[in-house]
Each structure stands twice: as C-alpha cells, then as structure tokens.
Amino acid sequence: MKKLALLSLVVLSLHADLFKAGQKNFGFSAGSSTGFGNTYTVIGANFNYFLIDNFSVGIGYQGWFGHDPKINEISIPATYYYEYTPQYYPYAGFRYAHTSIDSPYKDYDTYGVRAGLAMSFGGNSYMSVGWVQDYRDRDGETDSEGYPEISMGFSF
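User: That's the sequence. What structure does it adopt?
Assistant: Structure tokens below.
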C-alpha cells in the first residue's frame, strides 16, 4: 500500500512560540492511497503536545474511505525539532501505528522513522517537508515503505 499525503494543515495552535513546551496543535489531512487494488481517499486528524521545548508527542487517526476493505489507523508519533536557526528547524522522530482492516485481513503494527525540515515564516506559521520510512511485519512477512510528508502550520 502506498501512502501519499497531499496536504496536512494544522488549524489550531494555542501558543505563539511554535515548538515551546506546552504548545498544542491539532491537524487535519487529506490525501489518497492505493491498497488491495483500490484507490482510497485518506482522511486524518492528529493532536500533538510539546512536553519540553522542541520535543512533541501525539496521537493521530487515519481512515481510508471509498472501498472495501475498511482501513483505520491509530498512530503515536514523537518528534524532536532542532533549532538550527530561528527560521530553520531540522526534525527527526519515531512513530508507532496500529492498523485495523476488515476481515478476512489481519490487523498489523507499523514502526517508523521520520526526518525533515520545518521552516518558520514569522512568529505564527511554518511549513515542513520530510520523509517517513515505515516498517511492518504482517503474518511473518516484513516490508517497508517510504513516503513524503508536507505540512503547514499556523499559530493563533
């Protein structure tokens, strides 16, 4: 199954400092992906919280709509943003996800890494571009897949 995130838009952040402790953000995403011979519309939502400056943990959901089997994914990411300059923040992180699929298919777990660059556009907005590499083990068969991630964020 290939994933392609078309756009992830953070619509609500509660503090002006983008990556500071206590910062919270909510995000929504829309895209498409193929699996089981079908092209799905993929809709997602996520929440992240910065435990300490530059380090966030979160929870996310993705639903794959438009075909059978039904696919749902819950993910838990952790990301560290390094302040290279006040404008550029390289980031790296890990993620765990559990994917549930309708019968006759079996659920599976995914572990992944992500890395990229977040660019601040002033005190209240940023854009990030990166790469995610996922690894999964389904019924003893291990595979991996990589895909780009692009997001925009706004604080207010």
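The chain is about 0% helix and 75% strand.
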